[in-house]
Amino acid sequence: MKKKSVPSKSRTTKAPVKSVAKTAGKSVGKTTGKSAPKVPVKPTRKPSAPSTRVLPDDALARLQEAVKHSPSYKSAADNDPAFLAHPLTRGVRLQLDYYKPEVIMREHRIGGGIVVFGSARTPSPEQAHERLRRVQTALKKPHAAAAKPKLRNDLTRAQADMRMSRYYEMAREFARLVSRDGARRKGARLVIITGGGPGIMEAANRGAHDVNAPSVGFNISLPHEQWPNPYITPELCFNFHYFAIRKLHFVTRSRALVAFPGGFGTLDELFEILTLVQTRKTRQRPVILIGKAFWDRVFKLEALIEEGMIDASDRDLFRYAESAREAWDLILQWHEQRGQPLIDVENAVPVVG
Question: In this structure, is residue 305 part of a structural domain?
Fold first, then answer.
């Protein structure tokens, strides 16, 4: 008699779980015949207790001084010239170059000015006369024969200085006229504005000083230092770093521009304003050139018109004058004709003295 077969339960034999390290070790051992290298375990370090060592006062003072004198600690706004001189802070320097004169002139109620340009080399009549006298005296000396070529050049230059010195006196007189009338103006002041240097600039500031009127000097830092002339009102003497910002102040402040004979600097400022007015990038204003004979030799206006470089109407961008009184009258007339009188005579403040 056969026994009934009982369905057997499925037997699952659980393989003993072995550590990965051991299994890996055996498999490597079987394959290479070598045991797996043991991985060194770094001992866990206990955190060290904070130091209770007290530094002496002098050591603390040295550490504090080191921190205070670190370049990173300096205030970037006003106490870190090295950082402000960085190329990436040029935008900040441009702003500062603009804002400082702007803020100060507003505080002094400077509403606008008559800008005077001209050569820094033009001497006063006294200086020119003394220079000519010295050269003439040197030429009369018996031992001057060897130095005659140089002395003759010096004589030519001294004679030219004598001729040009009349413009120094004219600029001084012009500034007196402007400053006297400007003192009668109500509200914001109308002042003389110059580039702050010697020559014609000095003469204009000196004319304002003659009548106890304030005047502005826009000096600029140069590789060869140009010191401001002594006749500028001290509170209104500025030293620009950027020519562009200096020019911006000349343009925005000027109610008129008067150009006396000058060199590259004068020509630069003159043609800058003429270009801005011609292209309507700024408002119109009277531009007066002093000494037509000089400007006709330097600036061939008719040749530019004949060659089609400028329009015939560009003649109206400026006028010529031969005296201080004529220049000031042209400026006053220009503004009155446009209903913008510089000096409101009916409401003007009377001049005392």
Answer: yes
